[in-house]
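Trying the structure run again after the queue cleared.
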Amino acid sequence: MNAPAEESGKTRIGSILYEILETVLLAVVIWLVVNFATARYVVEGESMEPNLHTGQFLIVSRLSYMEIGDAIKLGSPERGDIVVFDFPGNPSDDYVKRIIGLPGETIEINQEGQVFVNGVMLEEPYLSAEQTVPYRGRSGTWTVPEGSYFVLGDNRNSSSDSRSWGPLEEQYLVGKAWVSYWPPRYWRVIPHYEYVSAE
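Done. Tokens:
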């Protein structure tokens, strides 16, 4: 007489176990998708002041520049993008900088720190005078090879960037800084700037 009750209990336990397994598998799939599409990065140092600060947490979009096979490219790095990349001198270190020069362009930085792209001065509204005047960085002229980008920190007087170690090869890019999510006072989508004068 107790068999139906026992079978019902076993069915309930089996159903609960199935739901737990389904939930765990769904969580694993979501975790894999999120980690495939994004990366997390913690800002260290003052090279991107006043726009990014030490201890600030960023979500980096891996999909922004991803290529799928030979035919599909989801996007290309653009001037003004803030990017996270493996430092060419030591790929175990991650850096964050802003793309200034695109493949094939000539970048000139004069002794006042003004940046020229193909002879046209670049307007940079995100810079702070405290970080650029007086300019104490390196001046010079660089031609950006194909497949590479010229990157600079926003704090031009305190940044290791393409002025020191040359254009960044695309293979080192991790992705585009997308969202700042910690501390809460810095929560925002990372803005993108358009550069009409340098086109």
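The CA atoms of residues 148 and 169 lie 4 Å apart. Worth checking whether this holds up in the mutant runs.
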